[in-house]
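Hi R.,

As promised on Friday, here is the backbone we talked about, encoded as structure tokens. Could you run it through your design pipeline when you get a chance and send me back a sequence?
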């Protein structure tokens, strides 16, 4: 196994049927809120990465049939403060989006080395709170992905 993280990751929106979204505050992040994220390890399938990260970061044990692969990916610049985790010269990451619906806003067990707090918020509030544009855009797409129950606001709103 490499000492460096792969520049391939997952973003998992954990939500309820009422579209409450789970957000986690990054440890040492000074108010940086996000959904579950994490890098692929070895040659694991992306869905396996998503399920592993959900379990590691929240304690939620989800089955593969609960996970929805959006078949959506985003490529972004890795922030300089986190570039040291990647091999020299790696500046971009490709993130793959998944969602996981749980029956209710359940308590979670945080990986305290990664996160310090958890919140369940309505999707609109969650989209406004996250620090990452990829996370914000995915949350805004959530209602459309779930049968168009509600329409997200237009980009830039």
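Update: got your reply. Pasting your designed sequence below so it's all in one thread:
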């Amino acid at each position: 196994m490499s000492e460096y993280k792969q520049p391939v990751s997952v973003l998992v929106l954990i939500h309820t049927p009422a579209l409450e979204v789970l957000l986690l505050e990054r440890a040492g992040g000074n108010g940086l809120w996000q959904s579950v994220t994490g890098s692929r390890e070895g040659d694991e399938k992306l869905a396996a990465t998503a399920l592993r990260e959900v379990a590691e970061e929240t304690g939620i044990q989800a089955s593969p049939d609960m996970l929805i692969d959006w078949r959506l990916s985003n490529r972004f610049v890795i922030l300089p403060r986190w570039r040291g985790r990647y091999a020299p010269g790696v500046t971009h990451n490709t993130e793959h989006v998944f969602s996981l619906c749980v029956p209710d806003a359940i308590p979670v067990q945080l990986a305290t080395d990664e996160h310090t707090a958890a919140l369940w918020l309505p999707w609109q509030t969650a989209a406004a709170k996250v620090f990452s544009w990829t996370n914000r855009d995915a949350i805004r797409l959530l209602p459309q992905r779930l049968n168009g129950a509600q329409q997200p606001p237009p980009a830039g709103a």
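One thing I noticed while checking it: The longest helix spans residues 46-58.

Thanks again,
M.
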